[in-house]
Amino acid sequence: MKLFWKSFFSKREILGRVRGFTLIELLITIAIISILAGIVLAGASYAQNRGLRSRAESEIKALETAIENYKADNGTYPQAANSQALRAALMPSEGKIYFEFTKSMTPPNANPSDPNQPILDPWKNEYQYRFPGEENRNGKDFFDLWSTAGGETDEAKWIKNW
What average pLDDT does this structure show over 17-32? Predict the structure, then answer.
């Protein structure tokens, strides 16, 4: 039994000098934890961005439905040069309200029912609206509605209704 204990513990442990972790062991542990934390944070960032994209897609579809309802009642799409004018058309102070804007689609500390506020995407950038839309895409009687998805310069990454 004595031989087992001698082979199991080092001489220092037998003499009563129990050692802690070496500097190399601590550095390797810290490096491994750092790598794992980086992987987790990168995955969380990707998931958050996918959630924002999904929300923007849903908001564009809901706005698209509201704009189509506006056209059904008025015979044409809203004549709006920007998202403030679009908000005013979809949520007039009098008459039929076509879309109830949420607080998340409104600038901070602004009233969502204020028709003079821009319509914000999940990245807090303004949604873009154009009527008539770009002619070479769908003809003449349609509109374009899009988000730059957080300021993307690559149009292929934008979230749009076309």
Answer: 85
